[in-house]
Amino acid sequence: MSDSARGGAVAGSVKTPFNATDDCSFLIAAQASGAGVLASTRSAARTPR
Question: In sequence order, what are the residues at sequence separation of 6 or more whose Cβ sits closer than 8 angstroms to the Cβ of residue 8?
Fold first, then answer.
């Protein structure tokens, strides 16, 4: 079942640069969008060690 079938919708998406260490600008943009839910993931395989 898709999100739209459940009454939800994807308002936008963003891909952060591989070496980004500061996610503040992305979070501020998400807050300004008025979205009710924010989902965030980051792959451990791509995280600098």
Answer: 37
pTM score above 0.70: no
**Which structure tokens are listed for 9?**
């919708």
34 dihedral zone (left: phi>0; alpha: psi -120 to 50; beta): left
Q: What would the pLDDT profile of 11-48 be if each residue is shown by its tens digit?
A: 788 887 777 778 888 888 888 988 888 888 776 665 55
Q: Is 20:48 a contact under the CB 8 Å cutoff?
A: no
Half-sphere exposure of 39 (CA within 13 A, CB side): 5
